[in-house]
Amino acid sequence: MKTNLLDFNLAQLTEHFAAMGEKTFRAKQVMHWMHQMGEDDFDAMTDIAKALRAKLLASAEVRVPSLMAAQEASDGTRKWLLDVGTGNGVETVFIPEDDRGTLCVSSQVGCALECKFCSTGRQGFNRNLSTAEIIGQLWWANKAMGVTPKNERVISNVVMMGMGEPLANFDNVVSALQIMLDDHAYGLSRRRVTLSTSGLVPQIDRLAAACPVALAVSLHAPNDAIRDEIVPINKKYPLSELMAACRRYLEFAPRDFITFEYVMLDGVNDRPEHARQLLQLVRDVPCKFNLIPFNPFPNSGYGRSSNNAIRAFREILQDAGRVVTVRKTRGDDIDAACGQLAGQVQDKTRRQEKWIRIAESGSE
Ligand code: SAH
Ligand code: SF4
């Protein structure tokens, strides 16, 4: 099998070229072609010597996951389904806003952590994505929206909030993050790349050392009893340990706060006393809250909190001086909201009708 150069960050590609007896600056050139120009054909890399191109053609490739389908919602949200060879796809979502464009990237096919309210978790775990499959999502999105000169990129922010637990696929995710940040590739600011985790404590410390990007933690509960129930990894890494890990991370983080995500589940974690308990829990952690109205899926067994409950919850946190955002649901008509990125595994019928088959549309 040929080596997939899309799997390498700059350090790894440099090493690979050195092992081939090639000069190290070639790695930078090839990174530029692959990631900034969206090029997957060595013959089109015109400033690379012909002899080297021939060598690369024989031993290597730029293998991006193939695109199975693409969709666009009426609000401009876009979604791509990439073939990762498991019979189902992984999804990537682009969310345009006035001042930024955010790409929501997946890290695994399925997820082993089984959070009760999450449709990815309900699927179970299939496998980790390779670095090429993770960065391939950015590659495709850039390509689909037109590769523009640097600094005019449509994608200004990346959130690792698609399918999977990114810290459970640590090495591949870190390499992909390094490519996102690299000036020879996507050149994104550390502050604009956010990794969301359900709270794998040892890996939070490892991330601080390896590649500190902005951190979001899926808290979802104000105490261990509720969190044990809805985020089962809490039994292994309870809240006291998670809060301590957040404080340690802040010494390395590019931002001076942690974002706590909190899915609003009707009657489960959305009462005023839960908000007060939450304030106590995070009293020593500089943080912002992102309240996420629960996105229902078939047989979830949960309901979305009422707008009144969400408003009251938010006000308690705000009155205590905390910054709170309530996540807007975007891309409703293409099932692109959080927790709905279930690929095509279970719900094949309804979803498939809505996908625009690439073959039919002929675009992209
Ligand atoms: N595994 C990581 C990142 C992916 S999930 C994590 O858990 O943080 C991204 C966010 O969507 C998480 O906060 C997750 O808890 C939330 N989420 C999952 N299912 C949801 C649903 N049905 N409705 C709303 N948010 C959901
Ligand atoms: Fe996995 Fe995150 Fe879903 Fe939990 S919420 S099952 S960690 S993807």
TrEMBL record:
Binding site for S-adenosyl-L-methionine: 164-165, 196, 218-220, 295
GO cellular component: cytoplasm
EC class: transferase
Main location: cytoplasm
The protein's Enzyme Commission number: 2.1.1.192
Keywords: 4Fe-4S, Cytoplasm, Disulfide bond, Iron, Iron-sulfur, Metal-binding, Methyltransferase, rRNA processing, S-adenosyl-L-methionine, Transferase, tRNA processing
Domain of life: Bacteria
A Gene Ontology biological process term: tRNA methylation
Catalytic residue list: 91, 338
Record-annotated Radical SAM core domain positions: 97-333
Cellular localisation: Cytoplasm
InterPro entries: Aldolase_TIM (IPR013785), Methyltransferase_A (IPR040072), RlmN_N (IPR048641), RNA_MTrfase_RlmN (IPR027492), rRNA_lsu_MTrfase_RlmN/Cfr (IPR004383), rSAM (IPR007197), rSAM_sf (IPR058240)
Sequence positions that bind [4Fe-4S] cluster: 111, 115, 118
Cofactor annotation: [4Fe-4S] cluster
Cofactor, how bound (note): Binds 1 [4Fe-4S] cluster. The cluster is coordinated with 3 cysteines and an exchangeable S-adenosyl-L-methionine.
Similarity comment text for this entry: Belongs to the radical SAM superfamily. RlmN family.
Name of the molecule in the record: Dual-specificity RNA methyltransferase RlmN
